[in-house]
Backbone:
């Protein structure tokens, strides 16, 4: 595995590649291994912070259960500027909302897989990234999430 740390408005973020796919995004770190995929992922991450509509095209591999992969796919389907609730995703997958929340917290590739776009029925819900809910709010504001009045 190779890793590359990128400075972002939410702090340093380390991108990790394995076998030609991005497998992790973690806050913090100091890694400087370059590859074509990591350089492209870093460019796309910087592009996201310039304009969240640019999106991500790097190949991803979610390591985890079939359920985690299904939740990550549902999160990737949420358009920029929109949000869903844990309950909405739960209904779509036929699972309890609490399980969706746990899977969001286990998302190995945050920002790229936008777990920050998933909210509780009556509030923000949690966020496992550095800075917690404050980072979630910052990402949602950056995306001008529709209807978010914070």
Residues:
């Amino acid at each position: 595995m190779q890793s590359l740390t990128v400075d972002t408005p939410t702090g340093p973020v380390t991108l990790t590649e394995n076998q030609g796919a991005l497998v992790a995004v973690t806050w913090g770190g100091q890694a400087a291994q370059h590859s074509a995929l990591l350089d492209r992922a870093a460019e796309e991450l910087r592009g996201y912070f310039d304009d969240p509509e640019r999106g991500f095209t790097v190949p991803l591999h979610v390591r985890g259960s079939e359920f985690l992969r299904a939740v990550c796919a549902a999160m990737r389907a949420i358009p920029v500027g929109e949000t869903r609730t844990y309950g909405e995703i739960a209904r779509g997958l036929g699972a309890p909302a609490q399980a969706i929340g746990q899977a969001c917290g286990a998302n190995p590739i945050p920002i790229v897989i936008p777990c920050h776009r998933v909210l509780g029925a009556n509030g923000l819900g949690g966020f496992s990234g550095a800075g917690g809910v404050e980072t979630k709010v910052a990402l949602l504001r950056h995306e001008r999430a529709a209807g978010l009045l914070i």
